[in-house]
């Protein structure tokens, strides 16, 4: 038991060190970006100056060509007015005109070359304009991420709470359902989602993010609730979660009702159930068995509270650090049956480890009891990199379920 506590302390320390380093890295990246923008602006000015200089040379050359043509015409008249030797005058006229034309062709070719280069330089200075398409990552994205990281640095228990907010905001999606549900609209701010028992305690997460929303009013609540979860996962040592902005918000309960977009309770997982229920919930969203197990790995983070779910305790010894420890602990039951036993208490059925400090829910144990889920538990217990890769892909999919593709911008 003592070694487990030491491991927990070391894990927390490692997580804290990573948390301290990330904001500094983000600030350095921001400074580098600003410096790069300055260089781009300087290059643009240089290109514009080159273009103007080229235009000036073109005008001078044109005047020279016109002068040569006028001289040729004057010479031709003189030759014609000189009487006899008209044949020679014709030759002289042809020679002069040919000379002027050749000079014009030469200078025009030179100018085309110069102007061609100048046009390309000017094109490069136009801000690398892109054709109309997906909106770029918002300018406020990095600042919002830094603000979320600061919240977690002040209290590392906030990280898992923000992940839960993102999960529950998105997990109401029903493929082909009416309404479809999902994160778009930020419906959790209003009934019935706000009062859904499965979302108990998430009002605290929403309140934490309110100052960030006020500081960056352009970000929608729907984007903020989901992006904060993605940032939290990475800040707690997990993988980068690809994220796209573009969600919009409902402004009131009445607006939700008018749009017939209210999502009734019952779409989120019930922790007291087994494998059949898990599949019903996740298949409805379009996930397969491998993705179900990968997403369940989020239980490495956080803990249950009796005043919210009725259950009590953390799943891992380092509940504020993203890792594959959840699978390692489940796998112990496969390697040594009886590692997890039913806890004797007045609350709902849950399991405890030999130390009595950790717990597992019936839905967790279903992952090792089911023949199709079990191999993925064993894989992720041995290979954290594989877990992180699969989790990042599945969680990114979850956050974007039900959001119109046309609304979403470029990937952050």
From TrEMBL:
It comes from Cafeteria roenbergensis (Marine flagellate). One of its GO terms (molecular function) is peroxidase activity. GO terms for biological process: cellular response to oxidative stress; hydrogen peroxide catabolic process; response to reactive oxygen species. InterPro entries: Ccp1-like, Haem_peroxidase, Haem_peroxidase_sf, Peroxidase_I, Peroxidases_AS, Peroxidases_heam-ligand_BS. Belongs to the peroxidase family. Residues 138-412 form the Plant heme peroxidase family profile domain. This is Plant heme peroxidase family profile domain-containing protein. Keywords: Heme, Iron, Metal-binding, Oxidoreductase, Peroxidase. It comes from the Eukaryota. Pfam families: peroxidase.
